[in-house]
Amino acid sequence: MIRTFPLLMALALLIGLAQPGSAAPLAKELFGAKSDGSAQRPAPFGSYAKGCVAGAVQLPETGPTWQAMRLSRNRNWGHPETIDFIEKLSKAAARQPGWKGLYIGDISQPRGGPMTSGHRSHQIGLDIDIWMLPASRLDLSKRKRENISSISLRRSNGAFVNSNWTRAHHEIIKAAAKDKRTARIFVFPGAKVQMCKDEKGNRKYLRKIRPWYGHHYHFHVRLACPKGQKGCVNQNPPPKGDGCAEAQQWVNNILSPPPPKPRDPNAKPAPKRRELVMADLPQQCSAVLRSN
User: Fold this and answer.
1) Residue pLDDT, tens place only, 250-285
2) 107 and 13, same structural domain?
3) 236 vs 87, 224, 239, 242, CA distance in Å?
4) Is beta strand 209-211 parallel, antiparallel or unpaired with respect to 50-54?
């Protein structure tokens, strides 16, 4: 929060000033210091991994069919469309046997932007992590929500699902993918392959479900930029088709990894990824930080 900085330093950070010869403040420090959303019209600016969000709305800690987890992180903020999506999907989840709704992980910080730890994405209020743990109760205390863990659904390093996988997981992820606002869903390769095997109806929605590293304790929903939000940058759409052959190739590579490419002894080491500063983000993000 902003009070963690001496007042004069905080003012200098917010307007991007620094002492001569000193490095520019990191964007993650500026956005991580904000405890509430900006007093602006809701709007995402930039891309999922390089942006911010104005007028973000906080997901209530507990709702009729959801609970926000890890409240100490203060990452249960998102664009209003994101909050509406969670409310609707959690109602669908509550219709599954053994589920009273959803446990919601990270969405975004109050004003989006780079996070102080963890994700590179989740910066514009349109990404949601949803736990794989069935929400069997919705009266968890704040302390319990800090200590409880989700469950892993993977086996053999993600090549297959394990015994925790249920048809309810299939149906919840399917419902998320069928929402027109959803651009992509990231989940471990074995889950995508299992859904491909089990789906006997319309397979069109499978295109949105993409295999990705990790994502076995939660699945990650990415919403498309809301209509009319010109400052928001969409990710390129997934390749055509249901993506099942691609997911199977991921599994094949897990089970039989391809041989490593020969290392060029003269090759220069890859540059270390640089931390983002305000100059890297859309210009509107400075106003998002300054807003009361």
Assistant:
1) 999 999 998 888 888 888 888 888 899 999 999 999
2) no
3) 26, 10, 9, 16
4) unpaired
